[in-house]
Records
---
Amino acid sequence: MIAEAVFYIFACILIFSSLLVITARNPVHSVLFLILCFFNAAGLFVLLGAEFIGMILAIVYVGAVAVLFLFVVMMLDVDFVGLRKGVMKYVPLGLVVGGLLLAELGFLYFAWAPAEGASLTLAAEPTGLEKSNTHALGSMIYTQYILPFQVSGLVLLVAMIGAITLTLRHRPGVRRQNISKQIKTQPQDAVELVKVETGAGV
Amino acid sequence: MTELMNEYGWTLLLIVLQALAIIVPLLTCVALLTYMERKVMGAMQLRQGPQTVGPFGLLQAVADGVKLFSKEIVIPSRAHGPVFILAPMLTLFLSLVAWAVIPVNEGWAIANINVGILYLFAVSSVGVYGVLMAGWASNSRYAFLGGMRSAAQMVSYEVSMGLVIVCVLLCVGTLNLTEIVMVERTWWMNALLFPMFIVFLISILAETNRAPFDLPEGESELSGGFMVEYSGMAFALFFLGEYANMILMSAMAVILFMGGWNVPFGLEGDIINAVPGVIWFGLKTFSILFFFIWTRASLPRYRYDQLMRLGWKIFLPFTLIWVVVISGTLLYLDAFPK
């Protein structure tokens, strides 16, 4: 009973805060509600028994991705009143995209057949194995699904290199700090003792 | 109703008592830590430190608490009210909630969960929001710069902290904090993990925004950073959160590298064996906290670009290579935990 109650609490907060993400007037509030969403999703994963995925969701999305979102949104100085004026123009397009996604999810729901011998309410926890969630996931990823796992890693690597090449610029005339050169500098390289005669100047 | 009370009431009561059993000693430790910091720094700078309130100035922290409690909480008129109030609460909440999984002795953790170390890492990485929200909601340039600095700094050092944790996990083969302490480590494992211990110590200084990485506060250029607009109890919550976080990070270092509640240095003897594990845990945590204060009293503040360079160009490559070194050694010696 407690588990169901907790599920409904998490699910309600999740849906409510995701609604607030798109309706909040202040973009920073939107991101904060998004973080609340991530948290509740992580809570739902833990309830399912998938504690590893729940924690990774909290670490990666809440701890890193959303921080960068918040960082960028706080720095932006966008005229939001001006942005809202054109909203009605995009409503048909948005409805089409949303409708398509909903229809696809619907098809998936009706067409989804579980594997033989498994029930529709598959537990996320490995049942019948004397293993923790993390062990089971690790042994699956690194044996049966090693190729897709490595390929997805490579895709991420390509994206990372792409982002770096897009933003890396070598501007001329920028004076950079060379730490090893600074440390190697001796007093005699930097300071010169000059004996100045009275009245002669340097 | 009585049935419900019988079924869940006692469990609830037990949970509340357990939470109090952690929070009350923790907050006492926070109060004593502020006293210790002022006394140790005083001794290092040839001063007396607090000495007026109570015997040896021991009640100084209580006096400070009473003072802060009686002050007005000023909310700037242009601040974003709810977020402004929420930020210090979140900071303290996160530094307390992490203690649920810390085993201070064998079996003395409120929640002995399978993914304890991930939970700790998640909570400590969420800690950045308190600072970021405070910086933004204050609607002040100084506070905003402090928040931005803190966000970039904590995200950067988390990367190398994560890799350090990976190194430890490779050697022990479990994510459960109690088991991490219990697993026997060979001498070469300890030798290989020692550089990671150093990296971890420096990273937790940056993660808790302590000197020499206390740029988010940087009073010389930001006049107090993200907490410049806070006063009274709201400021006290930030203060408590920072010190509770220091203790938490020290406890994390003790669990990962210093053998938790075990007797250190393989000491033997009747008296030593009679000492409960929680005392050893406390002493080890205390030594790391002393390191925190020691660095604050001896080192000047880093410049921001130096901080970033240390995190991304030195720690990240070093820890990444060390993960390969440790896993290579384990593979060569066939010592992977089964």
---
Amino acid sequence: MSVAIIDYGAGNIQSIRFALERLGISAILTSSKEEIKAASHVIFPGVGEASSAMTKLQSTGLDTLIPALKQPVLGICLGMQLMCNHSEEGDTKGLGIFDTDVVRFTTDLNVPHMGWNEVDGKGVLFDQIPANSHFYLVHSFYAESNENAVGHCVYDTTFAAAMAKDNFYGTQFHPEKSGEMGARLLKNFLQQ
Amino acid sequence: MLTKRIIPCLDIKDGRTVKGVNFVDLRDAGDPVELAQRYADEGADELVFLDISASQEKRKTLAKLVRNVAQAIDIPFTVGGGINAVDDVAILLDNGADKVSINSAAVRRPELISEVANRFGTQCVVVAIDAKQIKNEWVVHLVGGRVPTERMLFEWTKEAVVRGAGELLFTSMDHDGTKQGFANEALQKLSRQVSVPIIASGGAGTMQHFIDTFVDGNADAALAASVFHFKEISIPELKNTLRQHQIPIR
């Protein structure tokens, strides 16, 4: 197994590498197209603002590489949001992998939605994960529920907390920061 | 449902935990990584590390510590103490911290909040405020609460949020160390005027105090140090009690 974590200058990606190390897997952080293409599994992280992250992807050609990947790809947080059609954040056109849009929370509740919340998940990512387990989230924008959603979370409104389509997976929550269940989910992804 | 968070706080000096840690069965009670791991295993939702080392040289030790913590634990953690510039933040985040807590430097130069938020996102900016009631006003204090400022709590927190604070950590100096409960009235007022999560700090003594700060203070998270370090309150027991009181808990 060779895991590549896409490094495009967006946020805390060491945490993902450390989480994989705890599972006994060493991953490379890379922006090289060749290395990403050669990996058995690709993790597409992201923290920060959508339009500037997309600009970075475009400047390196990763915006065309990622949707063309054939191996399992996991987008985390902003990574997952960028895999959707469009994000309201910075009016950003996404990679169009997941057939949904990303919009801002409009609620009297606190924004960002920050902390541990229950995710009702199904399918391979959630294998051996009890229903409504808690995962750690921190985000102000969310992907609207859609037919690719394999996990839902409720915060004022119900949103897509996890998605899957062909070889592409995504989680709004941070599995690398979500304790034992997060580790389990990463393991499930790596078994695909 | 989004849960309330329980956050143990570790004071760090020269890479070691200080201020009394009474874990008899730890091999080394001064090792922050071992203690952090312990709290994570017990069900802590997040951790805060406050560095109280004075010199720049010692702060290099902090970066290494942050990396060791990030490698060991699988829950989010915040690092604070002595952050004066965007570069200080970059070092901590690069080493695996999830958030940074900015206190005195933000009061001295509020632009720092926006600079950090613009570069790394509001989600990693915790603005910490130490305040104390003087003639019915909550006066913001600096340098670990030693120096009073012209700033008042409610005005300052509003400004901090506008500038990009993603979370507020409010320590009542009147309550800190008393073990008589959190400053729930002020917390309640804070929660009504800002829309970011608020961490209550200062005054934890009993499990009832945690219930009160979540119910009466409307706090999103509660931070404590000594009650956890000295095992006066165990995290699993606290969480069970909170659950029995219908407070959403992981």
